Amino acid sequence: MKNSRGQDSNSSPKPSIHNSSISYDPAVKTDESLLPTQFGKKRKHSNGKRLQLGQSNSKHVAGTNFADCSEVLPEVKPFDMCLSGSRSSATSTGCLNEKWNEMGHIVEGTEQRILRPGMVLLKRYITLSEQVEIVKKCRVLGLGQGGFYQPGYQDGAKLRLQMMCLGLNWDPETRKYKEQRVFDGSKAPAIPHEFSLLVKRAIQDAHALIKKEYKVSNVEDILPSMSPNICIVNFYTTHGRLGHHQDRDESRESLLKGLPVVSLSVGDSAEFLYGDQRNVDKAEKVLLESGDVLIFGGKSRHIFHSVASIIPKSAPRALYEETSLRPGRVNLTFRQF
Ligand code: SIN
Ligand code: MN
Asked: Where are the annotated coiled coils located (predicted)?
């Protein structure tokens, strides 16, 4: 049965954890074909036994010396965002010849909206060639050490997505950021410089919009700047979703200052819900499409938000052609710890 938002009414998001209180729906089945083989029913951890810090499970990476810990550590089956036969490792991007940093400013056809104080949506902000680069980089990082896995909670329930962290690892079980992943000892790959530049540019353009709309001199009071040192990359299949939650696991200082979360969306569109209240039925809805950037900081830093659904076949065709991206959506959220 569906509720008014088209969600299964018996599985409406329950506020709980995530990068803060991501709720989840243990009753809902995940896309089995995408699950690492070791994912079973209830277990202590989504990927098996937790490691002591200092241990490392290097089995994740092809071509490395495997640590001799096969009895205790499960293998994390790599998740490939792109379908086999992917062209994403090819150097050519066909007719897409723009480069990173060339755009500098908002492109034609973009649309900018202040959704609420401190919350800005930059529609179609990321160019197609930048989206292609994002997919290619995330694919490679996602297949390497510290790459994608399907996170779970203490009770064994899984998030309905694949996740990888850059900069620092976020642990959904403890809701803490750590250098090393608890279950395999991997360090988070570094945030690619191009990603950080894109975030910086988006904040600058959001500032320009706020200045124009509010006629204020100090935009930092409304939307503070930030330099990301954390990025959580989520891949949602078309069945993916994320329950209503707040992002509140960053440092106290970062949260008090309202340093923004900058979210980039690539691939299929998502119905994104947001609002002041924990109750998802009171949330507002906005469509996040491929290339959109959503920023929430200042007074909007603590909004509840969720991904209600992914809209199949809504990604730009050229993105599939260039990358063979699986049906689904990639979302990158940047934060400053
Ligand atoms: C998140 O809240 O962590 C991700 C949101 C999104 O996928 O848009
Ligand atoms: Mn969030």
From this structure: none
The number of C-alpha atoms within 13 Å of 160 and in the hemisphere containing its C-beta is 25
Ligand 1 binding site (Cβ under 6 Å of any ligand atom): 19, 232, 234, 242, 263, 270, 272, 288, 305, 307, 331, 333
What domains appear along the chain, each with residue ranges and CATH number?
Answer: 80-335 (2.60.120.590)
Query: Which residues are CB-neighbours of 211 under 8 A, at least 6 positions away?
Result: 217, 219
Kindly report the backbone phi and psi dihedral angles of residue 331, in degrees, each rounded to the nearest multiple of 5, phi listed first: -130, 135
Would you state the structure tokens that stand for residue 245, as one six-digit string?
């939650």
Residue 98: the pLDDT is 41
Whether the CB-CB separation of 58 and 70 falls below 8 Å is answered with no
How many whole angstroms separate alpha carbon 125 and alpha carbon 121?
9
Residue whose pair of structure tokens reads 């202040």 in the numeric block = 114
The Å distance, Cα 115 to ligand 2 centre, comes to 17
CA of 286, nearest ligand number: 1
Q: Which residues contact 332 (CB under 8 A, 6 or more apart)?
A: 134, 138, 195, 231, 232, 233, 234, 263, 264, 266
Q: pLDDT of 7-57, one tens digit each?
A: 333 333 333 334 544 443 333 333 332 222 222 222 233 444 444 433 444
DSSP one-letter string for 263-317: EEEEESEEEEEEESSS-GGG-EEEEE-TT-EEEE-GGGTT-EEEEEEEETT-S-H
Compute the distance between CA of residue 174 and CA of residue 26 in angstroms, rounded to an integer.
Answer: 18
Q: Please spell the DSSP secondary structure of 234-264, one letter per residue.
A: EEE-TT--EEEE----S-HHHHHHTPPEEEE
Looking up tokens 């098996």 gives: 48
What pLDDT score does 85 carry? 59
